[in-house]
Design a protein that fits this description.
The protein has about 190 residues and is an alpha+beta fold. The chain has one domain. It has four helices and seven strands. Strands 1, 2, 3, 4, 5, 6 and 7 form a seven-stranded antiparallel β-sheet that branches. A hairpin with a 2-residue loop joins β4 and β5. The longest helix has 25 residues, at about 25-50.
Length: about 190
């Protein structure tokens, strides 16, 4: 099965799980929960690298995600987050899914920060999402500390992509696909 198909199936499964209709108060609570998790994640990134605070503040916008995943030969991860437009101060609630296959084993929670270099890159991310693949990983982390290639910065098109691993252990070589998309329930219609 092609990596794109695996990612699409994972995204579909995650969105089905979120399809239950929620009341306005449930929606407001979920939005508040995501905003609170986003701020906590930003604080972790600022602690890990204080220069990021200035980079985030001067950027056209940023996106923050907390993800949970597990793998044993095949793996999957999912999470929620916010894309924030610094010019308009508008939040767009987003989901993220990842599928992988290869020689791998592990379980982890991680945080992702994407700092956009242009308003167009951020708008494209919000409107169309992103998909991309990866390679091998050997990473361990606990208590907000991490080691391994995902512990730093990656450059993706018109953005910088940072990852912190909070806890867990992942090791192996795998092909992975990641997809980001708007959360239809948490965003205004």
């Amino acid at each position: 099965m092609k990596l794109h198909n695996v990612t699409t199936v994972l995204a579909f499964v995650v969105s089905l799980a979120a399809c239950a209709t929620m009341s306005p108060s449930e929606k407001a609570q979920k939005q508040a929960d995501v905003r609170q998790a986003t701020q906590a994640t930003l604080d972790k990134f600022y602690q890990a690298d204080p220069k990021l605070k200035g980079e985030v503040a001067s950027a056209p916008g940023y996106a923050v995600f907390t993800t949970y995943g597990a793998s044993l030969l095949v793996g999957g991860a999912g999470g929620k987050g916010i894309a924030h437009d610094n010019r308009t101060n508008k939040d767009t609630f987003m989901d993220m899914g990842q599928a992988s296959a290869g020689i791998q084993a592990g379980i982890a929670q991680s945080e992702t920060l994407i700092v956009f270099k242009s308003p167009e890159a951020m708008q494209k991310f919000i409107d169309k999402g992103w998909e991309f693949g990866g390679g091998g990983v050997a990473q361990a982390g606990a208590g907000g500390k991490s080691a391994g290639p995902a512990g730093g910065e990656n450059l993706i098109a018109d953005a910088r992509y940072y990852t912190l691993t909070d806890n867990g252990l992942q090791a192996g070589v795998a092909v992975a696909g990641t997809k980001f998309w708007k959360n239809k329930e948490l965003n205004p219609a």
